[in-house]
Amino acid sequence: MPLMRMAAENSSVTEFILAGLTNQPGLRMPLFFLFLGFYVVTVMGNLGLITLIGLNSHLHTPMYFFLFNLSFIDFCYSTVITPKMLMSFVSKKNIIAYAGCMTQLFFFLFFVVSESFILSAMAYDRYIAICNPLVYTATMSPRVCSLLLLGVYVMGFAGAMAHTTCMVRLTFCANNLVDHYMCDILPLLERSCTSTYVNELVVFVVVGIDIGVPTVTIFISYALILTSILHIRSTEGRSKAFSTCSSHIIAVSLFFGSGAFMYLKPSSLLPMNQGKVSSLFYTTVVPMLNPLIYSLRNKDVKVALKKSLSKKTFS
């Protein structure tokens, strides 16, 4: 792989040591079981939602097409991060090879950026469904949905490539202890012996785009949705419209709030311990909560789950 070859040539470091979440031995086993539980719930919740949507034909609509992909993304990037984080609780030194670190960084960024754009695609879908219901089927055709999804993954790939390419050009110092539980951008920049000015500029520009564009899209979509809802005369109609969007609003707030707090504040104002806690939200907590938020607050998913369970019981 060209990037890995370039990395080997540019750096004297062949491996990194991940410091993990805590250096207090007494907290390691309780945290291990806590985050193992989180990961099990994340895997079961997201794979369960993927299976449920795949098996129930009445859920084969644009809204659930995007939800299917959101669950896939959540499952993938949680799997990229959590198993290695769990290792830090049970091993004296959580070592990761240089190539493995850069690979983890790439796929983490790919899935996180993809999630930000799929949330904006879901907001656009809700805007069309509520504000233009008569043309919903024509507007959100399978071709349009596929193109939106392609755009989501293209932006994810572009963002991941921009950061990873800049990272492998750096030379890292002999001190290879990364003060984090994963290979993330800011902790790795602290270990560089060369100037990180370009990397920091890329962080503000690319992260600004990856958070800014979806946030503006979501804000405009929900401003138009709110305007449309206020014109609905019946209380029942308003309540139904609000319930349709509430799950998505909760997921968006959790994801973008923690991401912006981590990356869009100067590192001097954000101690690394606070950065770890913030990153826990979008790497561990959000992927676990998303399937719960979308299933517990969604009548269609509840009905599909009851049907699937009843079929299984009957058979």
List the helices and strands and how they pair.
Blueprint: H1 2-10, E1 15-18, H2 25-55, H3 62-90, E2 94-97, H4 98-131, H5 136-139, H6 142-168, E3 177-178, H7 185-189, H8 197-230, H9 235-263, H10 272-296, H11 299-314
Parallel strand pairs: 1-3
Antiparallel strand pairs: 1-2
Helix pairs in contact: 1-6, 2-3, 2-10, 3-4, 3-10, 4-6, 4-8, 4-9, 6-8, 8-9, 9-10
> Helical proportion?
over 70%
What name goes with the CATH superfamily? Rhodopsin 7-helix transmembrane proteins
Q: Strand portion, in percent?
A: under 5%
Number of helices: 11
How many domains, in number, for the residues?
1
Tally of strands: 3
Structural class: mainly alpha
Q: Strands of the biggest beta sheet: in what spatial order? A: 2-1-3
- First-last Cα distance: 50 Å
Question: Which CATH-level-2 architecture?
Answer: Up-down Bundle
Gross morphology is globular
Query: How would a textbook summarize the main sheet?
Result: 3 strands, mixed
Order of helices and strands: HEHHEHHHEHHHHH
Would you tell me which CATH topology applies?
A: Rhopdopsin 7-helix transmembrane proteins
CATH class: Mainly Alpha
Radius of gyration: 21 Å
Unreliable runs: none
